[in-house]
Amino acid sequence: FPVTIKVGNYLETDEELRERFRNTKFEKATNVIESLYSSILNLNGIEDLKIYENDTNVVDSNGVNGHSFLTIVEGGLGTEIAQAIWDNKPIGILSQGNTTVTVFDTQGLPHDVSFSRPTKVNTYISLNITKDSNFPQDGEDKIKSAIITYIDSLKIGDDVIYSRLYTPINSVPGFQVNSLFLGSTPSPVSTSNLVINFDQICNINTSFITITET
Question: Which residues pair with 71 in a beta bridge?
């Protein structure tokens, strides 16, 4: 007899599979740093994470003190991040960063735990285009959305590669690019890559993107 069916969903998308694969290696980690990765990545709201360890006696090139580690976290609650660091950090090794949270141990004693929030680098893009009859009515909004999606996909410390901007821009039909400028100021004058330091992350919104037509 005919019965009513319900359309199913894929168990997981390709991107979800890749993300699960990336996280799995940390979930079964025994190394202290990888265990710390696992603990923080499993917190709610975590968008990105980098950990830099310095096991030497001197300050390294990233400014991490000797026998210390620097955890850089985008997203998540500071109290939960600090607790995860405290639960995993080795005895006698200092946590370093621009944010400090007090954590209490099982005896009720306070401990200062530090980590960093990445410094946001505003990313300004100026685009001059010539439209044709195939250009969508909301084409400029679609171009801006495609650019923002790409920039938001970049991780802590990722440079903005100038030439790669053409891929999201050209995902919208019906126009040609006459000029493209990129910079960290409201008046971009460069066709060079935007260099992002190890403790920085790109920041963009629609007001940072200017599209003019010739």
Answer: 51
